[in-house]
Amino acid sequence: MGSNRSMPESAVVPVLTYPDVPAAVAWLSATFGLVERLRIGEHRAQLRCGEGDVIAANGGGERREPGAGAVSHSIMVRVEDVDAHCERARSHGAQVLLEPTDHPYGERQYTVEDLAGHQWTFTQTTADVAPEEWGGELVDA
Residue 65: pLDDT above 80? Predict the structure, then answer.
């Protein structure tokens, strides 16, 4: 894969739509700890999210913010400390949809909704669990 300083380095980069990109960047940075990488006017920004990237973009054409009561997608992000991350998000007014919960597949996770209605799940590994132990099936190792 080639390198381009104008593009995020990640192979997969979600593009999330917000009505006000500068406000979204400020909120995502303060609330989730994302780091702004590149700003393109007032309509688009690239943000680092751990080892991944996400783009915040204005709506227009077919691109719109999520609708009330409908989830078309969600973003999952790995973090070191789910409980501390959840408290940070809550202190910035994020709506926590699922409190930090331990799962049999070795992850502790919580789900939150951002200021435009996008759902984010933050996950912390608590154990290395074989998929077969909780009903999964590893297809490609």
Answer: no
pTM: 0.86
Number of H helices, E strands in the chain: 2, 8
- 117 Cβ contact partners less than 8 Å away, ≥ 6 residues apart: 65, 66, 67, 68
Lookup: tokens for 86: 């959840």
- Residue 96 to residues 57, 93, 120: CA-CA distances in angstroms? 23, 9, 10
| Residue that the structure tokens 């597949």 belong to | 105
Residue 66 DSSP code? P
CA-nearest of 106, 105, 103 to 127 is: 106
Beta strand residue intervals within 6-141, DSSP E: 15-18, 35-40, 44-49, 52-58, 74-78, 95-103, 107-113, 119-125
- How do strand 15-18 and strand 52-58 relate by DSSP bridges? parallel
* Tens digit of each residue's pLDDT (9 = 90 or more) over 69-83: 777 788 999 999 999
